[in-house]
Amino acid sequence: MRLITNGNISRYFAETLVLLFFPGSKFPEEGDNSGIRVELTVQEVSSQATGYALIHTPAGDWRAEYMVPCETAARLSREMRCKTAAGGAMLLAGKEYSGAMPPWGMLTGVRPVSMVMDMLAQGMHPDEAVQRLMTEFFCQEGKARLAVKTACGTQPLITEDIRKICSVYIAIPFCPSRCEYCSFVSFTSPRLLSLVPEYLTALCSQVRGVFSTIRRLGLDVATVYIGGGTPTTLNASQLDILLAVVGECWDVSRLQEFTLEAGRPDTIDAEKLAIAVRRGVTRISVNTQTLNDEILAAVGRRHTAADFYRAYQMARDSGIRDINVDLIAGLPGESRESFLHSLGEVLSLIPENLTVHTFYVKRGANITKIDENIYRVQDKETMAAVEDSAVLIQSAGYEPYYLYRQKNTAANLENTGYSLPGHPCLYNIYMMEEIHSIFGAGASAMTKLVSPARGKKHILRMSEKKYPYEYLTGEDAADKAERLYQSAADFYMKFREK
Fold first, then answer.
1. Is residue 142 part of a domain?
2. Which carries the bigger pLDDT value, residue 32 or residue 245?
């Protein structure tokens, strides 16, 4: 793929537009031997902008132009006018080339709900926000309404007090096996799993340092989220050690929410659940992705539907307040009917949270080596499955509470979290909408400092070493804690409320 841009166009934005129609593409400066070339040009005259797109392939050329309507251009910044012009042209050319218009239009970012929340905060009526998403950004009506409904449900949960506190994320980057589509940094081989005891010792030291930093900054903690990987890859004793350290560092009874991911049913047992309850965990994820045993085997999930039912019932019997179940629409080989069967079975269990992901793959996933055509711009089965699932889930009394998007997703669809009334995962909202600071601990974890004042948002990201063996050879916990404190103290001083 060769990408050429002319005019006031962000290179990154141009790449995200191209990925809508050519998922999985790379963008070397000199191009490649595929024979595919995309040219995006923006021309500006006074306060008007026009975009031009050319898609050249060995099979032919597709061209389009798009002038931003005058009434729209008048209220947009120069940057947004140019983005809209380039986006409109690329979407029109891409539709001619592929026969499909992306359901989210030119909203290529991770957080479409954030844009809607800004609209609502400025006093825009929800119906007006829907129309703006459709007319200015080429969103399908159903997607625009989903984004607005999610924003309307989320907005009341984001108070000024919530902006001034923080949450904590703790990473366990180990799994019992690796899914073929996996994009997370997780480690499954016996050699790497042998690092767990040493990793746990280092992690506990860092967790203590993180909570010490939070106390020194005078912050309160809203939520704690232990994610992975699969945290319940830890054995019962190891899990108890980690949860006990969190309890030593903070009064978990004061938390709004304490989540433990247990994504693999084959890692869940009654002893671990009893420990989680005793240590104050209030939310757990029991994720099956599908209840089709053939699909589970094909994508590398080493459990069956029966294992899921067993694990879910144990979680329910444990008394944990909230249970989440993840499903993935569009898994390779799975039909719409199969996915909807899984969904119906899960809905009958009445979990407090239900998350519908759309299948997507990063370049490093094993499945890309097996199926080079794994990226799917057009996927009517998955589109139907996602649309039908939204209707069924909401008819069962659930409401969307958070939503995000990823590149190279089947049919350019979304991931949506649904909850029963009063049971949204607050961490997911605070993290996805960047409401307040998230302090991270563990390999590949990120600390994201967010300025507490309203107005322009300022963010500082600090990442931990990606791999456990790197994490174990880095600076010690005391030095990490001091570095974190100094960075955070400087950040909060710079962006404190006036």
1. no
2. 245
